[in-house]
Amino acid sequence: MAPTSTSQTPFGRVLTAMVTPFTADGGLDLDGAQRLAAHLVDSGNDGLVVNGTTGESPTTSDAEKARLVRAVVEAVGDRAHVVAGVGTNDTHHSADLARQAEAAGAHGLLVVTPYYSKPPQEGLYRHTTHIADATGLPVMLYDIPGRSGVALSHETLVRLGEHPRIVANKDAKGDLGAAAWAIARSDLAWYSGDDILNLPLLSVGAVGVVSVVGHLVAAELRAMVEGFLSGDVAKATAVHQRLLPVFTGIFRTQGVILTKAALELQGHPSGPLRLPLVGATPEEIAQLKKDLAAGGVDL
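^ thats the sequence. predicted structure below, dont judge the formating
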């Protein structure tokens, strides 16, 4: 059974976009995924996104995606929201992935704006509602024009929020004004999808975060979110500022690369990356250690 949710926090407050652990030979490490998922929930996450960009979804097969959802749901599905990334730039394939994720036990779907094709806003609207109509699961949009090449306009976001199953947006657009406009005019639950903007987005109405650094500092992120929402802005600001070296450090190169390096340093399941991603260099790892130490992360 999925954890309790509300319309204000349909997927909880603090979610991590989880890496996909691989074995030494590059295969899917389901045991490692279950152990990592349990660790992340024990550390303070009340939701996990699997098969997202941080999960190297472009290089995992449909069958692997289904197996990963099942494994993570089996490990933590009774105490954390498990949200499956299903978005691609092929509408019908995305709908198939949505149905597959539902059958595998996912509690919700993450639908990224279709990349590369650069459709107009009407195409974005029809693409997303087609996927939302494919299952009975709640949908979190993922607006990340830096990767997709096209943004969801705030008018389209408001329009999509009228769909009964489109309930949230993961915002990685980096436009606080657009976020404020859309939050004020829709019922979408807003989640920060850009760690360095977690606190600023809370200030314009976000309800939580979908984080990458949540692999390492979930408890601190929870303290920041809860501090801000309880009115202790000074506490939230102090946590945010303390974590700035972590936000910077994990994204000095592609975030999956250094997240997996950090997890390996801590002894958690991670494994190699699949091409075109490559492992961190010794120089990158040395800098990562300095960044994490500056942010108070134990290795």
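Residues 47 and 256 are 18 Å apart (CA to CA).
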